[in-house]
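#struct-pred
JK: can someone run the complex with pyridoxal-5'-phosphate? inputs below
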Amino acid sequence: MPTYSLPKHIAYSQSLAAYIQHNLSDSTAQALTLAQLCQLGTADLGAGALGTQYQGTSEVETGHIGATLLSYSPVQGDVALRQEIVKFHQGLNYHSQIITADSVVTFCGAQEALSAIYQAVLSAGDEIVVMTPSYPSLVSMAKSMGVIVKEIALCADNHWQVNIGDFKHLVNERTQLIVLNSPHNPTGSIIDSELAEQILQLAQHYQCYLLSDDVSQASNYYDLALAHGYLDYSKSIVVGVMSKSLGLAGVRIGWAVTPDKTLLQSLMAIKAVHSICCSKIDEKLAVLALQNSQEILTNNNQLILDNIALFSALVARHPEKLNWHKPQAGILALVEVKNIDSIIPWSHQLAKQSGILALPSELFGLSGNYFRLGLGQKSFANILEKFEDYLLTTSTDSA
Ligand SMILES: Cc1ncc(COP(=O)(O)O)c(C=O)c1O
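RT: done, structure tokens with the ligand placed:
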């Protein structure tokens, strides 16, 4: 029987679960309650704009979430949701070809979408190019399939930036897939529109697949040029989700968009043997959230900016203990803890003494004394106070 292990960051969090009360590494923006989400639109749990009413064998739109018929949803995903996903994607990106709801498959989260994409396009012995550190499964899923992983190692001295030379160095005729993630988990660096265009040309030159994990693209609080035109290329795939910029991880909806019809069919076939379809309630809630995404994002992005200011002030008060590069976009950044022997015992001590989870960068494939900082939560200011108390009561070289 094969053995499977949890992704490292999840296993690490679970190993400290007895101590953890606060998560300083959360990768999501602030969540809403179900009631708050419903209040954003004209929907409510009993009566609103999104539901359907059952009449004999068919459903009719009534505007009642409570009237949603709890049957299977289409494998490809509810068409109204796929239309909202297209609008959301188009609001953030550009393309010369028309993207329609036919190019979208929904999944139960971005993770399921990524897993299906890897399964659909990769076989043992293929090569992929990916930036590291990374969201762990982008590397681990490939390795577990016997895929050769070529890593572009991001480094702090270079503010975690990549350039086209890094890609040209590793992409060649053996490359089956280039994996991008911008804004980047865990560093907070970006691929701007100009670099995106260069990477797109490289992928086209070698005719390899191009996957862009865009889960926090809408956390663009400095209004940088994050738009890309990847979907103009037939072998590109873009992944999005409710959990990160929109903060709605409890609405288990993610998606893949691709102009490649054959790939789309494969993704649906894979989904059909994993989850079959998404929850109908989640799909309705995702429609509601996407229709009100501007309001949600305005609030979430302002909160991230406020939290960046708080953390900058903390670093300025403790320059001998902490160092960081602010994120360019997204919800995450890496923080260097200075003058300690090793980040793992330091992080353990922090959890045991203060109940704070700070995920060491090793879990994301980067050695050195860094931890992942999540900047999306309302509780951030409160956690930071406890974190500062911890810094003040410990000498950094004792951990
Ligand atoms: C870069 C990236 N991609 C995909 C995912 C998966 O998203 P979800 O957990 O909502 O499926 C995450 C989650 O942390 C992520 O950080």
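RT: quick notes.
Residues 27, 109-111, 114, 135, 181, 185, 213, 215, 241, 243, 249, 254 surround pyridoxal-5'-phosphate (CB under 6 Å).
The chain has two domains: 8-33+295-398, 67-292.
JK: thanks, will look after standup
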